[in-house]
Protein: Galactose-1-phosphate uridylyltransferase
Amino acid sequence: MVHKRVHRKRDGRELLLYSWAPLEDPPLPEPEEAPAPSSHLRYHPLRRAWAVYTPHRQGRTFLPPEEHCPLCPSRPGGFPTEIPFPRFQVAVFQNRFPAFVETPPAPPSLPVPTAPAWGRCEVVVYTPRHTGSLATLSHEERLLLLWALRDRYQALYALEGVRFVMPFENRGEAIGVTLHHPHGQIYAYPFVPPLLEREAEAFREGPVLLELLPHLGPYAVDREGGFLAFVPPFAHFPYEVWVVPEAFHPGLWTLSEGEMEALARLLGRTVARLDALFGEPMPYVMLFHAAPKGEEAHFHFHVEFLPVLRDKGRRKYLAGTELGAGAFTVDVLPEEAARRLRETGLGPF
Amino acid sequence: MVHKRVHRKRDGRELLLYSWAPLEDPPLPEPEEAPAPSSHLRYHPLRRAWAVYTPHRQGRTFLPPEEHCPLCPSRPGGFPTEIPFPRFQVAVFQNRFPAFVETPPAPPSLPVPTAPAWGRCEVVVYTPRHTGSLATLSHEERLLLLWALRDRYQALYALEGVRFVMPFENRGEAIGVTLHHPHGQIYAYPFVPPLLEREAEAFREGPVLLELLPHLGPYAVDREGGFLAFVPPFAHFPYEVWVVPEAFHPGLWTLSEGEMEALARLLGRTVARLDALFGEPMPYVMLFHAAPKGEEAHFHFHVEFLPVLRDKGRRKYLAGTELGAGAFTVDVLPEEAARRLRETGLGPF
Structure:
C-alpha cells in the first residue's frame, strides 16, 4: 500500500513523501527561502502560442557538487536539502524556481497579450540515491514512482484552472540538465500547449494510435502486459520510443494495478535499451502525454522518449528547418532504429 | 550590376556564381559524385506535420580541416571543392546531401502516409574566404548575397510544386554546424511547414507586425532605411532579434534597391551586435520568413535571428516543455535583452 506524507516547507511549498511503509522521522532544518517567482505569460502572435517568462530562473542551481545536491535526503547537522528528512522513497515538492505558480504576480502590460503565469511546477525525486536512472531503480521503486505520478495527476487536474498536466524527465547534460540526482518534473499548465492541441485534434477525429498498433511489427521494440514499446514510423528523433497501452486509456489514472506493474517494467527496460545502444546513458526527454482536461473520451495515453543522440557521442541538433519552420529532418530510419533497439537483447523481442 | 554564371556540375547539380563583375575562369576538376539521395516524407499523425527522412545524410561531411573545406575556391592541382573555380564572390549550389530533391525516389509504403521528398536544397556560400561571418563581410559582399537570395527566391518559387522557400543560416558548433566556412542554405519545401502555416493564418487575420511596430520603443535595437531591428516582446529565445521592413513587403523580391542596401547593412550590424554581447561569435539560427506561395497579399516579410546562448558560454536548451509540449520557457526578458543589445554601441540607438 502506498503511504503519502504531506509536509509544508517553511517557505510554504508543499513536499510529499510517497513510500511503501510509513515514514515518521521528524523534519530537519530547511534551506533558505526561495526567491519570489516573477513569471508571467506572453502570447506570440505569429506562432500563436503562449510562452512563460521566468527571469528569476536565470539564477537557478547549476550542477552542484554531490555534497550539495538539493535532491538527496538531509542528514542531521549536514547540508539542508529540499527534503528535510533523513529517509524517503519518492519525494515530490513544488519547484524552488517554478515557471508556473498558484499565486503569480500581475503580468506587465505590453504590446502583446499577457496573462498571469498561473499553474504549478513540481519536482519528482525518484530515489534517495544520488546516482541511477529509471533503468537502475528496483521494480518497487519504479512502481511507487508511477503511483506517485498518478496521485499528482489526480491532485493537479482537480485544480480548477489547470488545463494540462505533464510529468516529464530531462536527462543528461546534453539536454541541459542542471541536477544529476535521478528526478523528473511535473508542469500543470493553465492552457493546452500547442503540441497537445494538435494531438487532441487528431484523437477527436479518430483513434489514431489504436488503429496503428496492429501494423507496427517492424517497429516493435518490446512488450509487457498490455503495453507496446515501439519506434514510431513517424519518429522525429533518432531512436525515439513510445510506450503505449494496447487498450484505450486517457491517462495513468485509469490503469489497473496489473497495468501499472507492466508499465513500470516496460519503462525501466526501455531506458535500459536506450542506454545499451551506445554503451552510455542516453540523453533524452521523456514525456507523459495524458488527456488534457475535457479530452478524456478520446485522447490515448502514451509515454514518449525523445533521445538526442543520432550516434555514439554525436547529437541531433534542432536547427534552421526545425526551429524556424517546424519541419523535422530525420537521419535515422525508424525501422532501423527499432531493429537496433530490439537487438540490445533485453526483453521478449 | 549583378552577374550570374550557371555551371552544371559533373554529377548534374547546378552551381550558380554571383558577382559584381563577370567571372570567366575555366572550370577545374570536380570531386566524386554524391551518393544518391534516399529521402522521402512521412506524416506524423499526432503532431500533424510532414517530416523528411534522409538516411543518406548520416554520412555527410563533418567538420573537415580547412585544407579540405568543400566551400573554398578550388586551386589548380589542389583539393577539388564544391566550387571548381579559382575565384568567386557568392556561390549557390545544390546540396550534396539534400533533404529535398527534384527527382526523389518513390516513397515506401508504411502504416502512416508517405510522399516523395520533392523539392530542392541549396547551399549559399557567402564569400571565398574560409573564415568570417555576416558581420565581417564587406557591404558589397552582403548586398551581393541578398541579390543572390532574391534571384533564388524567384527561381525556386517559379517551380510549380514549391510551396515555401526559406533561406536560413545555422551558425556555430553549438547549433550543429558541420562546416565552418561562412554559408547559409535554402530549402524549397513541397508543403507549407507548420510554423509558417501559423504565421500565414495570423497575417490573414490582420497586419500583426505592422500594427506592432509603432509600439516597440523599449524593444528597438537598431534601425536603417525603412527597417527596424528589435527584440520581439514575445521572443522565445534569449537575445532573439527580428529585422522587419516598416512598410509592407511579402518578400525580398519586392524591396527597392535602397531597401536592399539598408537590409544588407542592418543584417551585418545585427550579427555584429550579437557577437559583441558576450565577446564571442553568437551561435544562432537565422531565418528568412517570406510569404509562402499564395500568401503574398498579407504575409509580412521578416528575418529572425534565434540565438542559443542565454549567457556567456551557457546555452539555452530546448527540453521537456518545449520539445514535448511546444510551450517555451524564457529566462531573459526581451526588454532587458533589447537594452543590452542597444548598449553594444553599434548603430543609431
Observations:
- The longest strand of chain B covers residues 164-171.
- Residues 257-278 of chain B form the longest helix (22 residues).
- Chain B touches chain A through 78 residues (CB under 8 Å).
- The two ends of chain B are 33 Å apart (CA to CA).
